[in-house]
Amino acid sequence: MNLIQFLLVVGVVIIAVLGTRALPQDSSLAVKRIIALLFVAGAILAIIFPNALTWTAQLVGVGRGTDLLLYLFIVAALLYVVASERTRARNEAKITELSRAVALMEARIEQRNRDNAS
Is 68 exposed, middle or buried (0-12, 13-18, 19+ CB in 10 A)? Predict the structure, then answer.
């Protein structure tokens, strides 16, 4: 293993560890950790055995390993965008619901204050 391969492997492992650290109320943490482990294993194998990536690419009908990586990256990026958009939409719905609840509580408090004042 040469220096760049070592550095890439270390970088992939560090990114995976940082990306899978537990966040509060993360219900899909186990799935994320499994995906991260698969990603790390695949990345390390591709770094250490680049010819295996080319062989895999040719096996599935792609000319070069780099092209296969590009195609997989595009699919992963699209999945990330879709997941992020869904999360954003869920968060916006929760914020809207909370805003309505706060507005109703404030109205009730103001009404009680008016009733107590009179």
Answer: buried
